[in-house]
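lol forgot to send this yesterday, sorry. struct tokens for the thing we talked abt
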């Protein structure tokens, strides 16, 4: 019998920890020889969704295209790890329905913490007015209402957060 695929969707502010956690989970799953694919927002925007901007329409289109690919892979038994800010609840709900086997991980860190981390120096630029429509600064973020997993990355360690995601995969029968 072929294995059941799933999409694990990491959503949260820039700098909340989506890439760190999705890569950490990917590493563990790969070590077990499981088929894993990572769709990281930053990378995806360089090819699959190149040319799209940060208006609501473009952000939604970005998520739909990621969802389209994630669904195909999921259907073929892959564990797909998506990390994308995906600020709008409605389109996250849409891809959830479309993909079916779906675990939403809310990577939850206060804006102040993300801004202090400023991993890519983008908050500083946004505050200086050099970047517009920056999520959390002058663009909305709609937190999930019923995510399967919440990782409080300002309070929990990276390995604790990775464990929470692994547990959710296990308890739902994906591992
Ligand atoms: P995002 O992909 O959401 O923009 P990144 O993963 O690039 O965020 O950056 C998150 C930063 O926060 C990293 O420097 C990471 O080491 C740090 N961090 C601290 N604690 C955690 C945690 N519990 N989970 C994830 N990242 C954490």
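and heres what i got for the seq, position by position
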């Amino acid at each position: 019998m072929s294995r059941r695929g799933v999409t694990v969707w990491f959503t949260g502010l820039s700098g909340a920890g989506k890439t760190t956690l999705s890569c950490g989970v990917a590493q563990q799953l790969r070590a077990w020889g499981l088929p894993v694919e990572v769709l990281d927002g930053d990378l995806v925007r360089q090819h699959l969704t190149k040319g799209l901007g940060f208006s609501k329409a473009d952000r939604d289109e970005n998520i739909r295209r990621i969802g389209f690919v994630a669904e195909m892979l999921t259907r073929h038994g892959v564990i797909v790890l998506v990390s994308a800010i995906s600020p709008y609840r409605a389109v996250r709900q849409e891809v959830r329905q479309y993909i079916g086997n779906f675990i939403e991980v809310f990577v939850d860190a206060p804006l102040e913490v993300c801004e202090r981390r400023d991993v890519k120096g983008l908050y500083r630029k946004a505050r200086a007015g050099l970047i517009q429509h920056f999520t959390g600064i002058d663009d909305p973020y709609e937190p999930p209402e019923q995510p399967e997993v919440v990782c409080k990355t300002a309070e929990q360690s990276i390995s604790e957060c990775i464990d929470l995601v692994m547990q959710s995969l296990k308890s739902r029968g994906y591992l």
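The chain has a mean pLDDT of 97. anyway ping me if u want another try
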